[in-house]
Design brief:
By secondary structure, this protein is mainly alpha-helical. Helices cover 72% and strands 0% of the residues. The radius of gyration is 17 Å and the shape is globular. It starts with a helix and ends with a helix.
Length: 212
């Protein structure tokens, strides 16, 4: 398992890992899932396609997007799904193919997290604290380096601290790209990633408490 895959998977998927693993034993049309905010449902459906590749999970995502009035060429994901299914029979599954995961992340990130739509409305309404908090939650929904960096850059005019977050993320990328794939390096990288995520989550929590 490469350090790059460890870093990307942990960074993008940590928030919903425990909940999604629990839902894997249930149907996504159950009341508990339907009661979740639409932004959470989208995040979970995307995660399920990546982490538990199947026609059912891809169709669930497609049906949800269609119901939301979002038109996505789901057929364009099928070659990636076929490759996922091929390697899923092997040990380490998706971690075996770094290029595949990068392409999957780029595809998923074309479906913008709903948090950004919510954040725009909050900004228009003058709720700046809520805007920043929701926007950062959207950043944490992204999978690819490109989208994470772009989102933080776009936030900087309204929230200068985003430049520090972006710089910290780029330092993490440099550490990731220069790290060997041995267990000790991967553990150090995972810890550095965790600290970066926790700094964002701590800030989001602080803004929420201040707003209350």
């Amino acid at each position: 398992m490469t350090a790059a895959i460890i870093f990307t998977l942990l960074l993008a998927l940590l928030l919903f890992r425990a909940f999604v693993l629990h839902l894997r034993a249930t149907d996504l049309d159950n009341p508990r899932f339907q009661a979740l905010p639409r932004e959470s449902r989208l995040a979970i459906l995307k995660e399920r396609v990546l982490e538990a590749p199947s026609e059912k999970n891809l169709n669930n995502l497609g049906a949800f997007l269609l119901a939301e009035g979002i038109h996505v060429d789901m057929e364009s994901y099928r070659p990636l799904l076929a490759e996922q299914l091929r390697i899923s029979r092997q040990e380490n599954a998706i971690a075996l193919d770094n290029d595949l995961y990068i392409r999957e992340a780029e595809w998923m990130d074309k479906i913008s997290p709903f948090e950004f739509e919510i954040a725009r409305k909050q900004k228009e309404d003058g709720n700046i604290d809520e805007f920043i908090r929701t926007y950062l939650q959207g950043v944490l929904r992204y999978y690819s380096d490109e989208k994470i960096e772009e989102a933080l850059q776009n936030l900087t005019p309204d929230f200068p601290q985003a430049a520090e977050m972006l710089n910290a993320y780029r330092q993490l990328k440099a550490l990731r790209d220069s790290s060997p794939a041995d267990e000790i390096s991967i553990e150090k990288l995972a810890q550095a990633k965790k600290e970066w995520m926790e700094s964002l989550l701590h800030f989001i929590s602080e803004r929420k408490e201040q707003a209350n």
